[in-house]
Design a protein that fits this description.
With 480 residues, this protein is an alpha/beta fold. It folds into 3 domains: 4-60; 73-180 and 212-366, Aldolase class I (TIM Barrel), CATH 3.20.20.70; 368-470, no CATH class. It has helices at residues 61-70, 95-102, 116-122, 126-139, 159-165, 187-195, 199-202, 206-213, 228-256, 276-288, 314-330, 349-356, 367-379, 381-398, 429-437, 439-456, 458-473, and strands at residues 8-9, 15-17, 20-27, 32-38, 49-51, 54-57, 84-87, 108-115, 147-153, 169-172, 216-218, 223-225, 262-266, 295-297, 336-339, 360-364. It has an 8-stranded parallel barrel with strand order 7-8-9-10-13-14-15-16, surrounded by 7 helices. Strands 1, 2, 3, 4, 5 and 6 form a 6-stranded antiparallel β-sheet that branches. A hairpin with a 2-residue loop joins strand 5 and strand 6 (54-57). Helix 13 (367-379) packs across helix 16 (439-456). The protein is globular. The structure holds zinc ion. Residues 152, 266, 268-269, 340-341 line the site of zinc ion.
Length: 480
């Protein structure tokens, strides 16, 4: 049993509620963190130190759950149609920076957000991701609603672990069921493929679809006319994806067992652009099938790549987002447009806000990790050189599941770079993408060093992340 006196309040945001008080405490000797509970300690377990009517507890999943049951604002909740932003955090230490950036903006935050793919690469679990965010929500004194996003769920079996952990926002990715070949198929092929769709799950038929769609849809700012070709292409390309979404929604209902949640549909990580006709088709089918969704992430024109600004013609994107926003309004503005791979798209944000009137969700995933590397380049250049060297070796393998176009030959070799050149690499297109997609491999090799660096420079890291996201959130502010 450790001496109670070694633990000191580090959060400065201790909370007293209903006769008990809670605070995060730290121990100088080993940098350890724990939870101090005074008053009733029922439900907390595995005490590190105990006094009468008080204890110090490890930051375990059990104790996180016990604290959530005492302090309601530590539970993630659905955020509805508010302008919102999701902050992925691969290391579990960036939430204080996210909170500092989002405070006062009026933007509704999602502080826990990881995809199945990212958890696989980082070796974290849905529960760990949510609890890491929650401890920071507690430590930073954030009391407003916040969400937790189970990102890019691909199959029903992905869902229960996130539902059990307390997630409230579920991003369904039916991308594996999108038939990109439909873009090229001739009419005969499209007809054959459409005939073979899972019409039972769709609760419809080709005749029904013809009756519903072969007409002109007059939206407020444009009209969309479906001819045979446009309808068959939409059906073939996205029909199976809609059916898969229905199955996923069914699993979610079961797993959530009556608890409130919201659902996003994402088809952003597919091979072809989502046309306006196709967006209308997807939204209309999900509505007909009574699958409620709070946001939809189409694949827009041009390229949204990891960690860099929009690649393409902003004028064309402006018209494209304007069209997608008109479709959202056609459905009563009952959902938001979601911008995936949203970090660093500074040219896109004002366009998205203007067209949607704030019905928008911004999703960023790996950028807080890149900010950790920026800090590393400043405070431990030798380690950063080893990381960059290693990332160069891994890039061609690790890039395969991501949309990136960086070329290794454009990343300067380590031996020509001076120490003062290193942080600026985090602002260069190619180096940024190479570092972005190799995070899993880098964490496998340098995870312990990276975490130690971040824990020794926690305040600087929070400040680095805050500065980075202040720029992101500027365009989304609903309060000033
Ligand atoms: Zn995405």
């Amino acid at each position: 049993m450790t001496d109670f006196a070694e633990w000191q309040d580090i959060s400065g945001s201790g909370v007293a509620l209903e006769g008990a008080s809670y605070a995060l405490v730290g121990r100088e000797a080993d940098g350890g963190r724990a939870l101090s509970v005074k008053g009733s300690t029922t439900g907390f377990s595995a005490a590190l130190a105990e006094a009468s009517d008080a204890g110090v507890y490890p930051l375990t999943a059990e104790n996180a759950r016990a604290l959530r049951s005492r302090l309601p604002w530590l539970n993630p909740v659905p955020l509805g149609l508010r302008t919102s932003a999701g902050f992925g955090d691969r290391l579990g230490v960036a939430t204080p920076g996210h909170i500092a950036a989002v405070r006062g903006t009026g933007v509704a935050p999602i502080f826990a957000q990881q995809s199945v793919r990212e958890n696989t690469r980082t070796g974290r679990t849905p529960q760990l991701v949510l609890d890491d965010a929650m401890w920071s929500v507690f430590a930073c004194g954030w009391r407003d609603p916040w969400g937790a996003d189970a990102d890019h769920l691909k199959q029903p079996a992905d869902i229960p672990a996130f539902a059990d952990a307390g997630y409230t926002f579920f991003t369904i990715d039916p991308g594996d069921h999108v038939d990109d070949a439909a873009e090229q198929d001739d009419l005969a092929t499209l007809r054959a493929k459409a005939g073979a769709l899972d019409w039972a799950t769709l609760g419809s038929s080709l005749e029904d679809a013809r009756a519903s769609y072969l007409r002109t849809f007059a939206l407020d700012s444009l009209t969309l006319t479906f001819d045979e070709q446009a309808l068959l292409k939409a059906l073939v390309k996205y029909g199976s994806a809609v059916a898969h979404t229905v199955r996923m929604a069914g699993q979610l209902q079961v797993s959530m067992a009556g608890r409130p949640f919201e659902m996003e549909i994402s088809v952003d990580e597919t091979g072809t652009t989502t046309s306006l006709h196709e967006h209308l088709f997807i939204a209309s089918e999900l509505t007909r099938l009574r699958v409620p969704f709070v946001s939809l992430a189409p694949r827009f024109v041009g390229r949204f790549e990891k960690g860099v600004d929009y690649i393409g013609d902003l004028g064309e994107l402006d018209a494209n987002i304007g069209g997608h926003a008109a479709i959202v309004r056609h459905f009563g503005s009952s959902y938001k447009l979601s911008l995936h791979t949203g970090s660093d798209k500074f040219g896109v944000y004002p366009i998205a806000m203007r067209h949607t009137g704030g019905r928008v969700h911004l999703k960023t995933a790996g950028t807080s990790y890149l900010e950790a590397l920026r800090l590393m380049a400043n405070v431990d250049p030798a380690l950063f050189r080893r990381v960059l060297d290693f990332a160069r070796e891994r890039y061609e393998t690790d890039r395969r599941t991501y949309h990136v176009s960086a070329l290794l030959e454009r990343v300067p070799a380590i031996d020509v770079l001076g120490t003062s050149d290193l942080p600026a690499l985090l602002d260069e297109f190619d180096a940024r993408q190479v570092l972005h997609v190799t995070f899993g491999s880098v964490l496998d090799h340098f995870g312990a060093d990276l975490r130690q660096m971040l824990s020794a420079h926690a305040a600087e890291y929070t400040e680095t992340v805050r500065r980075h996201f202040d720029r992101h959130l500027e365009a989304f502010k609903t309060r000033s």
